[in-house]
Amino acid sequence: MPIRQSVCYPGLKPADMTADAFFALLADIGYEAVDLFADSNDFGELVPAAKKHGLVITCIIGHNGITQGLNNRETHEECERQLRKSIDIAADYGILSVVCFSGIRQPGIGEDEAAEITAEGLRRLAPYAERKGVNLILELLNSKVDHNGYQCDHTDWGVAVCELVNSPRVKLLYDIYHMQIMEGDIIRTIRDNIAHIGHFHTAGVPGRHEVDETQELNYSAIARAIDQTGYDSYVGHEFIPEGDAVDALRQAFKIFKQ
């Protein structure tokens, strides 16, 4: 079964292209979905436009939590308020997943305790997500280059949180770019932890640019490895093109079209 691919919007949309034209282009290339990282006030226009072209909406950002997230009990109430609202929006629009974040490391809190606190925050939401049929995907980000101090920066830590929550609706957003920076060993890690991965993101390393021969990751091999696991959700492209964005999107699609 070919890997199902999505594209992050609006990050990869050329500035001179309307949303409707961009969605039409994605469908023409062969993409099946969009990661909709736009203002929720625009969803009433964007979601129908994407669906008109046969595109699934894979995920939306659930809360403002990259710095103040689920690893701090003092922010649980606010995170829960924002995430419940996002779950409702996702359920109303038929969106698959809501992205959530650990937040940055808290002084005096060890890794194991922080995992338990994060799991507590997610356990407050998991039953609601289950009832609504929406996934919560905890994003793995690097703390070395882009997000200084971010706690969910290693796969093992994210998996530990998922296991503590123990909900079929709580998984990881495995960002290949970020995890190459933090730990490498991408293919083995994906194979060993695929049961806990609910979505993927791609980008080239270094620089977060095209997934082409100018960067260090062998995305063709990574795509084959993902396909061989039987993974049946989406791989979303989130790179920042240095060249022509449309050419880069065509190239990325071809690499992952197993």
Describe what you observe in this structure.
The chain is 41% helix and 16% strand. With 258 residues, it is an alpha/beta fold. The chain has a single domain (57-239), classed as TIM Barrel, CATH 3.20.20.150. Strands 1-2-3-4-5-6-7-8 form an 8-stranded parallel barrel, surrounded by 7 helices. Strand 1 (4-9), helix 1 and strand 2 (33-36) form a beta-alpha-beta unit. The model has no long low-confidence stretch (mean pLDDT 97).
Would you kindly provide a brief summary of this structure?
The protein is an alpha/beta fold and 258 residues long. The protein has helices at 19-29, 43-52, 76-93, 111-123, 126-132, 155-165, 176-182, 186-193, 219-228, 245-256, and strands at residues 4-9, 33-36, 56-61, 97-100, 135-139, 170-175, 197-202, 234-237.
- How many domains is the backbone divided into? 1
Largest sheet, described in full?
8 strands, parallel, barrel
- Low-confidence region ranges: none
CATH class: Alpha Beta
Query: How many β-strands, per DSSP?
Result: 8
* Percentage beta strand: 15-25%
CATH superfamily: Divalent-metal-dependent TIM barrel enzymes
Q: What is the overall shape?
A: globular
| Whole-angstrom Rg | 17 Å
Helix content: 40-55%
Which structural category fits the helices and strands?
A: alpha/beta
Q: If helices are DSSP runs of H or I spanning 4 or more residues, what is the number of helices?
A: 10
Strand adjacency order, main sheet: 1-2-3-4-5-6-7-8
